[in-house]
């Protein structure tokens, strides 16, 4: 009996020292970054997953991707924007990652570009289009990453509205001042090499993997621009009687009103009316829309 007791005590002590294995979570994982919140962290194929976007979300920058069985980048089915500003998608039978860009600078406006093709070489010019909203801007900073084969760059040039931007191994960067508000601003990229430099594009295998792969144009608002009033709330200086200053900025980025306010848009007369919800003081304000 004494021997059996020693064996039992040894077994209990050994079990206590063994690492605790967490319970298995069914389904594939949903990985998010930059403040995105997912309705679930794991989901079975076919389930609907909802993503809540963070404050400062850059319109058009949400990237939801996964690697298929052939290790090619793909996107889930049924990606849809909901009335509250969130997004939903159907979970594939693979792990998914969701990322986005966030703008935290009051005097900046970020535009996500669209590429005309997935490569540039001597017989194929690449165009990247940026839809610049109405407003007054002092400069534009471009960022266009390369997906692959940057070593094929040969005397590459990137020009938009008369401004030439820097090209280093296919990566486009630099700042220009030629900006056309309220229109599509197109950057033309050329390459003298007969071998192509690859960029991210809206097609399987060429989809962006994360939001950092997106082509962007960061606009700096001029000091005279009326658009500054939209971000004045950051310093508590927004003028008006809106109980929630952040709603002035939210209107331009996300239709989801929060923190005690709602809004309506009179497009015919260019007026936005911001109203406090029940219990939020002190009432209603209105302003010109779009800002100018």
Strand-and-helix sequence, N→C? HEEEEEEEEEEEEEEEEEEEEEHEEE
Give me the Rg, rounded.
25 Å
Overall body shape? flat
**What percent of residues adopt helix (DSSP H or I)?**
under 10%
Q: Roughly what is the average pLDDT, rounded to an integer? A: 79
What is the CATH topology descriptor of the largest domain? Jelly Rolls
Number of helices, where a helix is a run of at least 4 consecutive DSSP H or I residues:
2
How are the strands of the biggest sheet laid out side by side? 11-13-19-15-16-17
Instruction: Tell me the CATH architecture of the largest domain.
Output: Sandwich
How would you describe what is shown here?
This protein has helices spanning 2-17, 246-250; strands at 28-32, 37-38, 42-43, 48-52, 63-67, 73-74, 77-81, 87-90, 96-99, 108-112, 114-115, 119-120, 126-132, 137-143, 157-160, 163-168, 171-173, 175-176, 183-190, 197-198, 216-221, 261-266, 271-276, 284-288. The protein is mainly beta. It has 3 domains: 28-99, no CATH class; 108-221, Jelly Rolls (Sandwich); 226-288, no CATH class.
SSE map:
Elements: H1 2-17, E1 28-32, E2 37-38, E3 42-43, E4 48-52, E5 63-67, E6 73-74, E7 77-81, E8 87-90, E9 96-99, E10 108-112, E11 114-115, E12 119-120, E13 126-132, E14 137-143, E15 157-160, E16 163-168, E17 171-173, E18 175-176, E19 183-190, E20 197-198, E21 216-221, H2 246-250, E22 261-266, E23 271-276, E24 284-288
Parallel strand pairs: 1-9
Antiparallel strand pairs: 1-3, 2-4, 4-8, 5-6, 5-9, 7-8, 10-21, 11-13, 12-20, 13-19, 14-18, 14-21, 15-16, 15-19, 16-17, 22-23, 23-24
